[in-house]
């Protein structure tokens, strides 16, 4: 499910990426938690992400799944710019096939030091 969401966003399909989110859901991308109540809220959140991403790996602990992504450019507003190629991590809570929580988390530094 996480890979499908990332692939959809990377293609620039904002409405499609928004459909992966439960309503309500909670997101945090370096911000205090924000609750998404409507599909329009979910579209705005996905549109706010300047990068696409390729799923590299996941690990789970209880109800939390942490995904590591390699950032890419994607069609749409904004640009990934210098973030392209770097790693980023997000912790998800998934329920009934939908994202209930999407929270950006700190990276574990790679040996090269190339993280976001």
Structure, described:
This protein is α+β, with helices and mostly antiparallel strands and 116 residues long. It has one domain (2-105): Nuclear Transport Factor 2, Chain: A, CATH 3.10.450. The protein has three helices and six strands. The protein has helices at 2-10, 14-18, 39-48; strands spanning 21-28, 34-36, 52-61, 64-72, 87-95, 98-105. It has a six-stranded mixed β-sheet with strand order 2-1-6-5-4-3, covered by helices on one side. It starts with a helix and ends in an 11-residue tail after the last strand.
CATH class: Alpha Beta
Q: Biggest sheet, open or closed, and with what strands and sense?
A: 6 strands, mixed
* Percentage of residues in helical conformation: 10-25%
Q: Compute the gyration radius: what is it?
A: 13 Å
Structural class estimated from helices and strands: alpha+beta
> Order of strands across the widest beta sheet?
2-1-6-5-4-3
The CATH topology annotation reads as Nuclear Transport Factor 2, Chain: A
Strand content: 35-45%
Total DSSP E strands: 6
Tell me, briefly, the overall form.
globular
Cα distance spanning the termini: 23 Å
Output mean pLDDT. Answer: 93
Low-confidence stretches: none
Number of domains: 1
Named at the architecture level, the CATH assignment is Roll
| Count of DSSP-assigned helices | 3
